[in-house]
Structure formats: structure tokens, C-alpha cells
Specification:
The protein is of the alpha+beta class. It has one domain: Glutaredoxin (3-Layer(aba) Sandwich). Helices cover 22% and strands 20% of the residues. It contains 2 helices and 6 strands. The protein has a 4-stranded mixed β-sheet with strand order 2-1-3-4, with helices on one face. A hairpin with a 2-residue loop joins β5 and β6. α1 crosses α2. The longest helix has 14 residues. The two termini are 22 Å apart.
């Protein structure tokens, strides 16, 4: 599975989203899956990416949180979370989204 974090320059939520995706992968024991950062610099960069604002997290090219409308605007994205709207999904939300896309927890012992 290829995971990308699509973001715009100076997005205040890029680091938080990256930390949460990495924490979700660690919780699943999937340190074998890398997160690739992809800088979106123009409307043309959004073509075929599923970009729905910064940060957008994709797995194999599909938005992990498809409730966001695709956008060519270089703007911020908000996510509905149990604690209200936020600039990044929670670790638990990322875990569930990854599982729903078929990423299974590692079977090896820690």
C-alpha cells in the first residue's frame, strides 16, 4: 500500500497529520509502510490525486477520508473528529480508515 500525504507549502497541519498517520501505522505494527509527502504547488499538481485540501491522506491514490470534495484550490482542509472539527484526523480515525482500505495489522510479535 502506498500512503501519501498531499499538502501545500506552510500548511499548519502537515506535521500533525504526518505524526498521526505514522502513529496509526505503528499501532498496527506496520512500520514497513512508508508515508510519502507530496507537495502540491499549483492547481495542475492536483490532477488525478484526490486532493481535497491540505493535508489530504491517500492510500493507493484514494482519499482515506472521502467526505472531502476534490479541489484544485490550494487551501486548508478540516476533518470532523469526535472532538469537533480539526486540521487532521485522530490516530484512531486513521487506524480505522487504513483498516477499511485493507491494511491489516502485522502478525509478528513485538
Amino acid at each position: 500500500m502506498k500512503i501519501e500525504l498531499l499538502h501545500i507549502a506552510d500548511c499548519p497541519n502537515t506535521v500533525r497529520a504526518l505524526e498521526r498517520v505514522e502513529a496509526a501505522l505503528a499501532a498496527l505494527g506496520r512500520d514497513d509502510v512508508a508515508v510519502h509527502l507530496r507537495l502540491i504547488e499549483s492547481a495542475a499538481d492536483t490532477a488525478g490525486t484526490g486532493f481535497a485540501g491540505s493535508p489530504t491522506i491517500t492510500a493507493d491514490g484514494a482519499d482515506l477520508f472521502p467526505g472531502g470534495a476534490p479541489s484544485v484550490e490550494l487551501a486548508c482542509r478540516i476533518y470532523p473528529t469526535p472532538g469537533g472539527h480539526a486540521g487532521a484526523p485522530t490516530v484512531e480515525q486513521v487506524i480505522e480508515a487504513l483498516k477499511s482500505r485493507g491494511l491489516t495489522p502485522s502478525q509478528r510479535r513485538r
